[in-house]
DNA sequence: CGATTCTTTGACACCTATCAATCTTAGTGG
DNA sequence: CCACTAAGATTGATAGGTGTCAAAGAATCG
């Protein structure tokens, strides 16, 4: 029995398009790997020797300036694919936000496998196109939105992402959810400072739009108000 | 003789991976289209009925907030691919920055063709991965760099892009080049206002790092200085 | 329970946006 | 061809939003 049979994301990860034989073959070149929160799996600028499926947990993709300013350019969820196939060195680091479980392949073995399985490449293409759309949407937020709009947009986005991911299928946006991010990491996603994020969250709380029972959980109590905030601070 | 035989970018566009038969077939479902500077080819939110290869000219990809603030999220050059294949509606508009020539396909016909030609999908995947890297690099600029750093980074990027595109192959960064962008469009790429862009260009000129013989052409006279500016305003 | 880390809150400064005026360039019609 | 007009770019003055610096308050972990 291949370990794919017990995989939590076998129906959602890119492998889901593969036939049994191909899945067996892929299983032979992959291996499970557990990583602890905070552990970095891929380093920016590295030769990026690995790619992986995310089985469980969340990870951040980051880039940094020469003098250490950091930006989170993506977040991955279970069933997402990480790493940079096909020859380029990785342009960002990948670090676990929570304890996580990966299904890891060497880049070269994955590249070879993918080229012989067009269905897999098609699936990867569709996901990459989706990631590109998402990245470009985020560029609008970073380039043109105020701090107030950014924080409100972020809460709405996280609510949708965290609410719609259950294995039972999409459940819609969650009114209440736990952020897997510190204030610093939130700031690194939004292109702000921790102080500004903190103040904006306080403002939304004072305005009665959200509750913050503890510093990691958010409860949205006024969707209309929050959505209004997300489009004109 | 198919029109592909006379195509300016036949060796660089995604079609370059196709065999003769496949190229003929693709040629049958595509058509040439000339667009004038300022003309919009694809509208944000549309069903995105077309995709295309850029044969000549440059175009911008844009998204906008509900109240009209605009952001340029990408620029395309000859041999680039535009549009959103595979079912999603387009998340950005595509507008010509210069007069341009396209090789247009209906999305549905292109989708069908691509699925039967894995080599084409592979090429598209590689390009999309590259675009994603580029978009994420830009997120660092938008989220973490000062106006001075942004403008300097922009000039360096444009120099490399415009210098390295000749059909004879890469020629390296150009010391002198003509921006296909107005100040407003430059601001829309950098997440700044026209006034700030103008002031930063003036500052670089006063510092002797660039010359601005007319408002569209830039000459870089101090690469080391400009590169220094791009990393700590 | 103490120490460390993270977060919040406050005071202040600076960068960039905004508003406004001038100057330049490009386009148009006489 | 030139004046006129409109659009784009520059320059200046001002104000507001965020960053920075600093301190105090929670939460986490040993």
From TrEMBL, chains A, B:
Cytoplasm recorded as keyword: no
SMART domains: cNMP (SM00100), HTH_CRP (SM00419)
Keywords for the protein's UniProt record, in alphabetical order: DNA-binding, Transcription, Transcription regulation
Pfam families reported for this sequence: cNMP_binding, HTH_Crp_2
Domain (HTH crp-type): residue spans on this chain: 145-224
GO molecular-function terms, A-Z: DNA binding; DNA-binding transcription factor activity
Highest taxon of the lineage: Bacteria
Alphabetical list of CDD domains matching this protein: CAP_ED, HTH_CRP
GO cellular component: cytosol
InterPro entries cross-referenced by the UniProt entry: cNMP-bd_dom (IPR000595), cNMP-bd_dom_sf (IPR018490), Env_Response_Regulators (IPR050397), HTH_CRP (IPR012318), RmlC-like_jellyroll (IPR014710), WH-like_DNA-bd_sf (IPR036388), WH_DNA-bd_sf (IPR036390)
Span of domain Cyclic nucleotide-binding: 14-83
SUPFAM superfamilies, alphabetized: cAMP-binding domain-like, Winged helix' DNA-binding domain
Coiled coil ranges: none
PANTHER family: CRP FAMILY TRANSCRIPTIONAL REGULATORY PROTEIN (PTHR24567), FUMARATE AND NITRATE REDUCTION REGULATORY PROTEIN (PTHR24567:SF75)
Name under which the protein is recorded: Crp/Fnr family transcriptional regulator
């Amino acid at each position: 029995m291949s370990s794919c049979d017990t995989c939590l994301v076998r129906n959602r990860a890119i492998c889901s398009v593969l036939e049994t034989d191909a899945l067996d073959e892929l299983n032979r070149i992959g291996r499970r790997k557990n990583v602890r929160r905070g552990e970095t799996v891929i380093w920016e600028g590295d030769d990026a020797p690995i790619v992986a499926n995310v089985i469980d947990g969340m990870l951040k993709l980051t880039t940094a300036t020469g003098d250490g300013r950091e930006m989170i350019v993506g977040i991955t969820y279970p069933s997402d694919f990480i790493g940079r196939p096909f020859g380029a060195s990785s342009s960002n680091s990948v670090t676990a936000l929570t304890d996580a479980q990966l299904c890891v392949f060497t880049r070269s073995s994955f590249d070879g496998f993918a080229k012989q399985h067009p269905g897999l490449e098609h699936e990867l293409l569709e996901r990459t196109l989706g990631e590109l759309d998402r990245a470009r949407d985020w560029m609008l937020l970073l380039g043109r939105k105020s701090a107030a709009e950014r924080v409100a947009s972020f809460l709405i986005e996280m609510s949708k992402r965290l609410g719609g991911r259950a294995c039972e299928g999409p459940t819609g946006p969650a009114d209440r959810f736990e952020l897997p991010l510190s204030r610093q990491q939130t700031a690194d996603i939004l292109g702000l400072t921790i102080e500004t994020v903190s103040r904006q969250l306080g403002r939304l709380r004072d305005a009665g739009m959200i509750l913050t029972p503890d510093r990691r959980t958010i409860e949205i109590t006024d969707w209309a108000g929050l959505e209004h905030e997300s489009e004109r601070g």
